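Hi U.,

Before I forget, here's the chain from the pilot set. I'm dumping it here mostly so it's searchable later in email.
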Amino acid sequence: MTEQLDTRVAVYIDFDNIVISRYNQLHRKHPVRLRDLAVPNPDPAIAQRLVEATVDLGAILDFATSYGNVVISRAYADWSVPVNASYQKQLIGRAVDLTQMFPTVTSMKNGADIRLAVDVVEDLFRLPDITHVVIVAGDSDYIALAQRCKRLGRRVIGIGVAGSTSTSLADACDEFENYDELPGLDDDTDDLDEVIVAPVATASTAPAAKTKPATSPGNPQKAATQLFMRALRLGHAKGDNDWLPATTVKNQMLRINPSFSEKGVGFSSFTEFVKDRNSIAELREDGQARYIRLRPSYLKDS
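Structure:
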């Protein structure tokens, strides 16, 4: 992964679109619309299917950081809808601005596409240093927005759910990623326990809808290792080289979690931090330069 310099990223999420698209992708025989989810106590079968279709917004936000520093992140939805409300804490924890959209018609359509598009264009004129625009949606209504962003000199990255994304929208973007193919999606990090000396705290409860936090709230060593692996997987997925510059990896970790510090987990340097995780990543030293790569057993296909 080539180090991104002076790149500033703006992320815009049509939240209802991505949540319902994911639900309908996994449960084609039981499709839903927004108004089906707006009731205070949904059908238990729908509620269970919603849990199964939980969107990993952490993976989306982490992927956005691989393009540079995220300076704007907004999610558009009616946050009074129970399924949306279940994501609020995690989104706020990742510094995502929640834009409230009130339904204007009985179909529950809330006009997020228009509001989102207006905000994007306004932000691009107000903040000319934004270099990348990430649009998380699959609606063909965003084609004109993607084209306008490109005409304004920005690089447009789209993220959508396979089967629910307009092919014309994908073509209008500079890059388009299917949600299911995002690096680090649904990482299983339970196998990290054997490489962490300190005991790992276990959570007694879990939210119905969870977003991958920047670090886990349990053991700091395990949390730092998870962050390290996620940064490496993003780098391997986007780069052409097996070996990633250590500075690039650390910068990616800081973009995901600005509070990371190797000193905070007991190491005098980032090199020492990496060496301590020799069982999951290799370190190559070339003069003053340092390069890192995940060992094959940890390098999942994404």
